[in-house]
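Hi R.,

Quick one: here's the Dihydroxy-acid dehydratase sequence you asked about.
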Amino acid sequence: MSRKLRSQHWFGGLDKDAFIHRSWMKNNGLPDDAFDGRPVIGICNTFSELTPCNAHFRGLVEQIKAGVLEAGGLPLEFPVFSCGESNLRPTAMLFRNLASMDVEEAIRGNPIDGVVLVAGCDKTTPSLVMGAASCDLPSIVISGGPMLNGQFKGRAIGSGTDVWKFSEDVRAGVMSPADFMAAESAMSRSPGHCMTMGTASTMASMAEALGLALPGNAAYPAVDAHRARLARLTGRRIVDMVAEDLRLSNILTREAFANAIRVNGAIGGSTNAVVHLLAIAGRVGTELTLDDWDRFGRDVPTILNLMPSGAYLMEDFCYAGGLPAVMKEISDLLDLDCMTVTGKTIGANIESAENYNADVILPREKALTQQGGIAVLRGNLAPQGAIVKPSAATTGLMKHRGRAVVFESIDHYKSRVDDPDLDIDETCIMVLKNCGPKGYPGMAEVGNMALPQKLLKKGVRDMVRISDARMSGTAFGTVVLHVAPEAAVGGVLALVEDGDFIELDVENRKLHLDVDDAELSRRHARWVAPVPDMPGGYQGLYVERVMQADKGADLDFLVGCRGHAVPRESH
Ligand code: FES
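And here's the predicted structure, written out as tokens:
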């Protein structure tokens, strides 16, 4: 290797500093030749028992280490903040940016030449890629893999997707509480992350589509030996990437993001990918806007028949050929020249892919929807944009005018939604405020708010819902999300009142509040900004500096790549 590796600024030489760096590392048994100039590979691990989706990572990391050693590198594992979706309150998204800071500073401050990013649960993938992108060293993603399909009473059940269904069935009185409890154990049958096309599987797919992970990364189940093998190959490959100086900025081009957006449409991927990809692009310095989501994704058919848009689960996706097979089916829509971590182009990576199950990966003419991308809506209610996922929505509600029933906060919603006297029917539009980046804080996944019990009992299963929140990638419905500006900063959303009429027209990308400007001005003059729950601390900093959803909800001072120059010595 012609250039001097970063790690040699720590481990090379004969002075006291090099003595200190090497000597302490030797306390775990490393021999002299561990510091002979071989690439040091940081293994950035989001293992945590509080993040159950990532709790199997110790075994996976052993495979990565073996791969690094086989290729002549020195693997050094380090832990970073693990944002687990199922336990972390008030929402894991609040901590995505914090975790990304941890990743960025840990990489830059240590003797690392290349990084393996070990991610799984929803926010762990974007937080690692964002942090690594701000450093721009050779980096490769390996995902922990999805759980095996859920199985309950003879049928497959999906993480999240069936939780929402079962919960509404219990409230509607058509499922017993005992069955509800029994489904818990049946749903999560093995290590791994959600096995629907929720946010974790979407982000694993995005990593693969962007060219950041080896082919096959998205779909192999966590417990499949293929996953262990992929980890080993990932460990080997990162050593070569250091030799090639193949960095994130070489891979995360505008064309790569366009590919990922199109793949997201084809797989019926999570709406959360919107904020995550915008934030990643911001870190690496690649131009990407909210409107690019509509521009690139608009005419992409959703051909992957997976919950929540379709019927199958990630295990089925794996056996059908995984993401390379989907990308092959839509290869005419992709830029096949994009470089990837394999050192080859996307086109070369998917060349030999095959579709083994046309019920799971559908032919284009049988797509779930021909317009599978994320629709970006605008209008006086969302001047900076809002989004809806057509593949998860009800066709008959995509053009709808309805009377607003307004919930001022998530607590107001919870206290009011099941009030038998609530004046609401299935033609109404449910509006939820103050759940955006600053308002919740952290832009919680509450946008797919459950319907009022009295309507569920009538058999209603979808209504138009509008908020500044996000929704789980496993969720479904005609749910308008990410309204910007959010209510907590005085966006027009804050001014909606019970009884106003709202017009949604997805085909024409319109979201309009039917209240004239003079009345909106009067309401704005009366509007009082909500008081944040927690002054100071990280949450205070977050509320002060977080950007709106259309900018990826990153902290404004974290945008950009700050590189990986070797910091000054510590002694
Ligand atoms: Fe971790 Fe769904 S809760 S991936």
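Residues 255 and 335 are 7 Å apart (CA to CA).

Cheers,
M.
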